[in-house]
Amino acid sequence: MDHDTRVFPDPDALAFAAAQHVALAATRSVESRGSFDFAVSGGRTPWEMFSHLRGMDMPWSRTNVFQVDERFAPDGDPARNLTHLRKALGDVPATVVPMDAGVDPDNVDSTALAARSYASALPAAFDLVHLGLGPDGHTASLIPGDPILEEMTDLVGCTGMYQGHRRITLTYPGLALAAQLMWVVSGTSKQDALSRLLSGDESIPAGRVVAGESVVMADADAMSDKPSGG
Fold first, then answer.
1. CATH of 4-222, one of 3.50.50.60, 3.40.50.450, 3.40.50.2000, 3.40.50.1360
2. Is 215 helix (H, G, I), strand (E, B) or coil?
């Protein structure tokens, strides 16, 4: 899909601009329909974004924050995205809709039930979905080589083991609920993957994501001079 690409000089400028983008999207959504449905990925970048967003004019009481993906781990575990999300939000009066990822990751029935339960809690559409990008081209927990990449019906699914954890994630159909995607990409390790994303390379998981609109926000280190083939 086409991407509106914006480049910023450093990670802090990127995080600040991403926060401004979220605040504007939230204001517009609340003005038009009374609420803002926002899905957030894990990783370091969103927590830096939230540190700026907490100081902005943001309709928190009308904001519903969903998770894009999560590691199966006990509640409160530092491996959980939710642990960091709650810390990043602080005491703002947003409604957080968490993934149930405290179940036994080896119990297939429990993890499948967690996926179905979260799918039932999703809105008909997201106003905005935040995505990151891994050096291997993954986004959300859509991991290279995992069967989750072939799920074209269910909105939420579970992955195999990846970097020490099984995960629960929005699938391609789940991400397609987004009126707009906001990719936030930082660092030289992301250059190849970002180049592939921008060139429409569907050989990486991120390259297969389709939604209403897409904005790519990157720092200068993440941008390469030449696109990578795909």
1. 3.40.50.1360
2. strand
